[in-house]
């Protein structure tokens, strides 16, 4: 028991070091309710200790705070009321000094024509100018990796230039989309809708059973306002989930990309009949097995439709072939005694001929001529 007790503080420290590491900190921030605190890097303690990996070690909030305050002061700082914490060191971001603009151009050229590469205002950052807008969208939704590290891409505005060229109102609804997740495996779309309808009217939920993330579209522009309301209410409770559901409203580039992806899917006619658009699917560039089968069936139907116009057997041709076959059968049986058995055989013969014509839809001209002879 003593060994287990001594290991708890170490496990707590290691886990919070992982949560606040460069590769994980942004995911943790995204999982926390958005507020003025999180914008400055502060994370709510109650949210962090509700994570499954923390609860697997201990559910005692005082024990966690005692370990972090006394043994984690070298990398963690707290607010005066100990309700929020953040790491002391800033994010280590940016490229190293050894990388050149030519290498940056090589990285981004695969997404589209690069017009210019220039140094950014912050050290280790670059500004990439594309000739067209589509490559910008692709870089925002595609994971870009350089030397095993994820490159974080965002858009910037230049004087007199806008990424979205439109007049007010914008060509898509503003402040109506939130992204939620991750969710448990047994959570259904109806559970998500019921949870959010306690706060606002839901247009529909963009979510497939078995996925971890999804989107909620509201009938009114209330996505941002719901953050503080739901946060004060203690979070979103979804049937089938032990923890509160994490979510955030789509804003700026993220919102623009979402509607661009929906527009692209409409243009490519990639909607399935059973569900709505799923931007997570579009980010991967892959279709589901069900959608592939539907497209395959449609292509087969089109080919069959084209083939129906080639060398079809007419009713007259069928009757001539049938008469010829029956005549030969009657001649073969002319010397035999007519009986119920022979009649039954002829009936079977005629039925088999009918079945042959039912299954025979396309015959080449040479085959038809040989059948007539």
Automatic annotation (TrEMBL):
Record carries keyword Transcription: no
SUPFAM superfamilies per record: RNA-binding domain, RBD, Winged helix' DNA-binding domain
What Gene3D superfamilies is this protein classified in?
A: 3.30.70.330, Winged helix-like DNA-binding domain superfamily/Winged helix DNA-binding domain (1.10.10.10)
List, as start-end ranges, the regions of compositional bias called Basic residues: 290-308
Look up the domain of life of the source.
Eukaryota
GO MF, one term, reads: RNA binding
Q: Name one GO cellular component term.
A: ribonucleoprotein complex
**Entry keyword set:** RNA-binding
Tell me where in this chain the HTH La-type RNA-binding domain is found.
2-95
Instruction: Outline the segment boundaries, as ranges, of region: Disordered.
Output: 290-319
Keyword Iron carried by entry: no
Domain XRRM positions: 171-305
Protein name as annotated:
Uncharacterized protein
Name its species: Neocallimastix californiae
